[in-house]
Amino acid sequence: MPRQVKEVAHYRDFRLSITQALGDQLASALADLTPAPLTAEALDELDERPGVYQLYRNGQFVYVGKAEKSLPTRIHKHLRKISGRRNISLSEITFTCLYVAEDFSALAPEKLLITQYKGRGEIPWNNNGFGNNDPGKRRDETVVKANHFDNLHPIDVDRVLTTLPQGPVALNKLLPLAAKEIPYTFRYLKKGYGNAYKAIVEVPETPTISQLFELIAAALPEEWQISLLPGRAIMYDDSPRTYPSVWRYYRGTQILDVEPEIEEAGEILEEEEHDEETEG
Q1: Does 117 share its domain with 170?
Q2: Are 125 and 55 in contact (CB under 8 A)?
Q3: What value does the mean pLDDT take over residues 244-272?
Q4: Mean predicted confidence (pLDDT) in 46-64
Q5: Structurally, how many domains does the chain consist of?
Q6: Does one domain contain both 115 and 219?
Q7: Which of 132, 185, 238, 250 would disulfide-bridge 217, Cβ 3.0–4.6 Å?
Q8: Is 99 part of any domain?
Q9: pLDDT tens-digit profile of 124-172?
Q10: Could you tell me whether strands 232-236 and 36-37 are parallel, antiparallel, or unpaired per DSSP bridges?
Q11: Using N-to-C axis directions, what is the helix angle for 109-118 and 18-31, rounded to 10°?
């Protein structure tokens, strides 16, 4: 019986995964770097250039992100955020980064890295809301999930403020200064507040954020309140309105601690990062 010869087709598909190759090269280049402590001094050594970066907590790889314009500016926002949270310390955090050409940023290099690392069960902070900007008033009614970064590491109101002017200060002067120094979003009514911000507050030397909120709330009309959500503080003339995720209210001379609602752990939508934070 004659042996059959298998014919070889004169064509076949060829697929070149350029994006996978780029992702592999980016990951390899970052792996060659030695993480530096997340400090202002380390960030001062960086050039104002776009790029990608990685964060580590106690040596564990937890987050990958991008900077469209400036690596030090973007990473400094993470430094500020972490510095104002409980259950975490800047001393635990290190980072590495790569500069990338502006035309390369159009290929979304951070997404290439995210795709690669998520498959290995790494970068937990890319799926817990860590990189999200202030969502604005439209999301103040949202119930925070148990595994959300803001629930795991809520804002710290015992932090001491050191740059505020001492003595009598009008609220319209004090509020923007406080919002600048407080290391998380302090969002308050910027229009239509009438004469409320003409009130004078006697600011002590180096108050805590909580002490400052007490003074501000006591100086405002009774329909005002300061509400502490897991990731930010808000101040509006809506007392006694309640918010599901709030854990403390400052109303007049009262401080009301409440039990916030918490949604069971689950997938968290990661908003696209931007160099400029959104204003609520």
Answers
A1: no
A2: yes
A3: 89
A4: 94
A5: 2
A6: no
A7: 250
A8: yes
A9: 998 888 987 766 767 899 899 999 999 999 999 999 999 999 999 999 9
A10: unpaired
A11: 80
Helix/strand/coil percentages in the chain, nearest 5: 30, 20, 50
Contact 99, 50 (CB under 8 A): yes
In a shared domain, residues 60 and 164:
no
* Residue 166, CA distances (Å) to 201, 204, 205, 207 in order: 10, 6, 6, 10
CA 27 to centroid of chain Cα atoms:
23
DSSP class of 208: B
Domain encompassing residue 96: 18-127
CATH code, domain with 32: 3.40.1440.10
Q: Are 165 and 212 in contact (CB under 8 A)?
A: no
Orientation of helix 171-181 relative to helix 209-219, angle to 10°: 160
Domain final residue pick, 127, 158, 193: 127
pTM over 0.70: yes
CB pairs under 8 A, 24+ apart, for 157-162?
Answer: 157/208, 157/209, 157/210, 157/213, 157/228, 157/233, 157/248, 158/208, 158/209, 158/210, 159/83, 159/84, 159/183, 159/208, 159/209, 160/206, 160/207, 160/208, 161/206, 161/207, 161/208, 161/209, 161/212, 162/206
DSSP label of 194: T
Q: Per the domain annotation, does 9 fall within a domain?
A: no
Comparing C-alpha atoms, which of 271, 155, 144, 167 is closest to residue 215? Answer: 167
Q: What percent of the chain has pLDDT over 90?
A: 66
In a domain, 47, yes or no: yes
